[in-house]
Task: structure prediction
Amino acid sequence: MLTGERAVRPIALTSTVRALTLCIGLALFSFRAAGVDLQGHRGARGLAPENTLAGFRTALAIGVTTLETDLALTRDGVLVLSHEPRLAAVQTRSDGRWLSEDGAPFATLDYAELDRYDVGRLNPDSKYAAQWPEQRPADGQRIPTLTALFDLARGSRTPSGNPVRFNVETKVTPSAEVPTADVEVFARAVVAEIERAGMIDRTTIQSFDWRTLLAVRRLEPRLATVCLTIESNDMNTVRPAADGASPWHAGLKAGEHGDSLPRLVQAAGCSTWSPFWRNLTPGLLAGAHALGLKVVVWTVNDPAELERLALLGVDGLISDYPDRARQVLQRRGITID
Result:
């Protein structure tokens, strides 16, 4: 377990700690060098069907600076947008009928086989749907390609007039519970599509499994990479295995980098560290900034936490409700960029 300022355990904020954090944030706010990067998670999952063109249009209308999404690679080499590496029963219909169980992995399907599936709403009988009561259906949405997303937002601008950016996540895992494309094949496909679209300067590639990030950096050093981490009861990508390395970290060992997670991120070649929002402490943020890393937290939906983290000095907020985040940032006079 990393300790001291490097601890990344989920933290429960008392009212005293919360007040102190806000004070620190207010003191640092005047030194903010740039605006906050407002990222719409899977488009705007709280408001529209996730990872659909309808959802990304919703996010663009709100005024996000970055569209965050997830990637899978089909058998015939097409990059599609999906958080799950397979057809998800909770959001997939064929001829108007919900899938009774999760379907085939994308790695075993050609892109043409996906066209008959509608992903424009959630199954109302599912527990997952109950989490998103504000999500408005958009029937007829198909699983989009990364190319379609680039085309949709190519001419879109941020509130300050800059081109809207893209933050794309490679959905692979060290244990490969569900078959996916090989790490190197996946990385080559992502780099090739971004280059073909002319989006190198507008795209970051993120992953919990840092193998794809190292592969991307070898293939195209101009592409910025984002190291995702989480330490919670349900998922822990930070805890080291017996050899001292987390299986998620491509063989890198925190013990060889001062037991510092920000230094480990730096060693992986990432320019941004993206921790689960509950794991970030003021000390970790300061340590990351001292190394020149940007810090973008995911996935923050509560207005009070959005405000606390913005005032703490994070560089970006990923949210299912970018409208809430935008309201908080505007109320505090924080530039969105």
